[in-house]
Write a structure and sequence with these properties.
By secondary structure, the chain is an alpha+beta fold. The chain has one domain (about 10-210, about 225-315, about 335-355): PPM-type phosphatase domain (Phosphatase 2c, domain 1), CATH 3.60.40.10. The chain has 13 helices and twelve strands. The protein has helices at about 20-25, 60-80, 90-115, 120-135, 145-150, 205-210, 215-220, 230-235, 245-260, 260-275, 295, 305-315, 330-340, and strands at about 10-15, 30-35, 45-50, 155-160, 165-170, 175-180, 185, 210-215, 220-230, 285-290, 345-350, 350-355. Strands 8-5-4-3-2-12-11 form a seven-stranded mixed beta sheet. A five-stranded antiparallel beta sheet has the order 1-10-9-6-7. α4 crosses α5 (about 145-150). The longest helix is centred in the N-terminal third of the chain and has 26 residues, at about 90-115. The chain starts with 10 loop residues before the first strand and ends with a strand.
C-alpha cells in the first residue's frame, strides 16, 4: 500500500482557449486539457495537456489532441496503484506504449465513423512516404498505422501526483513548471532538451525522444505545478536577463492562488487566458495542480525579489507584463515536419476533460 505524506488538500484546475489566429481563420482550437482526481482535495491527481500540430498536413490534430488526453488519463488511471514505483525505463516504454496503443484505437474508431476522403488519404500517404524516404531504417514500422495516425499528430504532457511520487511524461514541447515550498521555481524539462524541434505522438521515434521523470514527492515538496502548451511561453520574452518563464508563470498566478478560492480561479481562468493569448496568437492551455493553501501563503516573502524585479520592468502606466506577438503560430510547427523526417467516467466539456469522483 502506498504510504502518504502528511499533507492536506490538493486541487486541480485548467482551461484551454482558442487563439486569435485560429479564430480569424475559422479553425478549431487544436489544444486539449484534462484531469482526473478520484476524491476532491485528495491525491492522486492526473493532469494532461495536448497540443495538436498546426499545419494543413495535420488536418485532424484537434481530434488527435483530445484523443491523446483521453488515452493518457485512461492508462494512467489503470496503473495508479503501482505507477509510483515504476522506473523511468518503464515509463518510457510500458506507459507510453499503452498510451499510444489506446490513442491509435481511438483514431481507428474515429476513422470508422468519419473515414478520410480520397484527397485526405492521398495527403497523409504522401507525407508518410516522404518520411520514410528520409528514414535510415524503417523495419518494424507499421506504415498503415502511421498513415492513419499522421493527420492526428499532437504533443502530450502528463503529470501524475500520487501520495508519494510525481511522474511526468512529455511528448513534443510544452512547459511544466514546479514551484517548490522554498519559493523557488523550476522547469522540469528545460527548453534545451527539445533542440527546437517537435516529435509528436504519431512519430515512430517518439519512444526514444520523449522526456520522462519520476521524483519522490517528499523530496520535491511542490507547492504548485503548472502545465501549459507552448502557446503560453511563446508570448513572453525571457532574453537578456529578464525573468525566465518559470518565474513569470509563478508570479502571474501566485497571488491569485493566495487571495482567491480555487473555484473562483477556475471560473476566471478562461478569461485570463483569452487576454494572454493576444500576445502569442496561438491557442493557449494551462492546467494547475495546487498544493496545500497554508503552505502556499508562507512563500509570499520568498517570491518578493521576483515581484520587485517585475514591477521595475513594467511600462509606465501599464499594469501588464510586456508581450510580443509571434504572428502565425503555425510557423512554429513547421519544425515538426523537419523532426518527422531524421471512458466513460471522464466528462467532456468542449476541449476540457475532467473528472472527480
Amino acid at each position: 500500500m502506498e504510504r502518504s505524506n502528511d499533507w492536506s488538500s490538493w486541487d486541480v484546475i485548467g482551461a484551454s482557449v482558442q487563439g486569435p489566429y485560429h479564430k480569424n481563420k475559422g479553425q478549431p482550437n487544436e489544444d486539449a486539457i484534462g484531469w482526473y482526481q478520484k476524491k476532491p482535495g485528495k491525491l492522486p491527481i492526473i493532469l494532461s495537456e495536448a497540443d495538436g500540430l498546426g499545419d494543413d498536413m495535420f488536418f485532424r490534430s484537434d481530434r488527435g489532441s483530445r484523443f491523446a488526453i483521453e488515452a493518457s488519463i485512461e492508462i494512467c488511471k489503470r496503473h495508479l496503484g503501482k505507477i509510483h514505483r515504476w522506473r523511468e525505463g518503464q515509463l518510457r516504454h510500458r506507459l507510453l506504449d499503452e498510451i499510444i496503443a489506446c490513442w491509435n484505437q481511438k483514431i481507428s474508431e474515429d476513422l470508422n465513423n468519419y473515414p478520410f476522403s480520397p484527397e485526405e488519404e492521398q495527403v497523409s500517404t504522401r507525407h508518410v512516404q516522404h518520411f520514410f524516404s528520409n528514414c535510415a531504417e524503417d523495419e518494424g514500422i507499421d506504415k498503415s498505422v502511421f498513415i492513419r495516425s499522421f493527420p492526428y499528430s499532437t504533443t502530450l504532457n502528463t503529470v501524475v501526483v500520487t501520495p508519494t511520487a510525481i511522474i511526468v511524461l512529455q511528448v513534443g514541447d510544452g512547459d511544466i513548471v514546479i514551484v517548490h515550498d522554498d519559493g523557488s521555481t523550476k522547469e522540469i524539462f528545460p527548453k534545451e532538451l527539445d533542440c527546437g524541434r517537435v516529435i509528436p505522438l504519431s512519430s515512430p521515434s517518439v519512444r526514444d525522444s520523449c522526456n520522462v521523470c519520476r521524483r519522490d514527492l517528499g523530496k520535491v515538496r511542490p507547492l504548485i505545478i503548472y502545465l501549459s502548451s507552448d502557446g503560453y511561453s511563446a508570448g513572453y520574452d525571457s532574453s537578456q536577463g529578464k525573468p525566465s518563464f518559470d518565474e513569470i508563470v509563478a508570479f502571474e498566478f501566485h497571488s491569485k492562488i493566495q487571495d482567491f478560492s480555487i473555484t473562483d480561479i477556475q471560473e476566471a481562468l478562461p478569461y485570463l487566458l483569452e487576454e494572454l493569448s493576444q500576445g502569442s496568437s496561438d491557442d493557449l492551455t494551462l492546467g494547475i495542480i495546487v498544493g496545500p493553501q497554508q503552505r502556499i501563503r508562507k512563500t509570499q516573502i520568498k517570491l518578493k525579489k521576483l515581484c520587485d524585479q517585475r514591477e521595475e520592468e513594467k511600462e509606465p502606466n501599464s499594469g501588464e507584463p510586456a508581450v510580443e506577438s509571434t504572428g502565425n503560430p503555425d510557423h512554429d510547427y513547421h519544425k515538426s515536419k523537419e523532426k518527422c523526417q531524421p471512458s466513460e467516467d471522464i466528462t467532456t466539456t468542449e476541449t476540457v476533460l475532467y473528472h472527480s469522483e
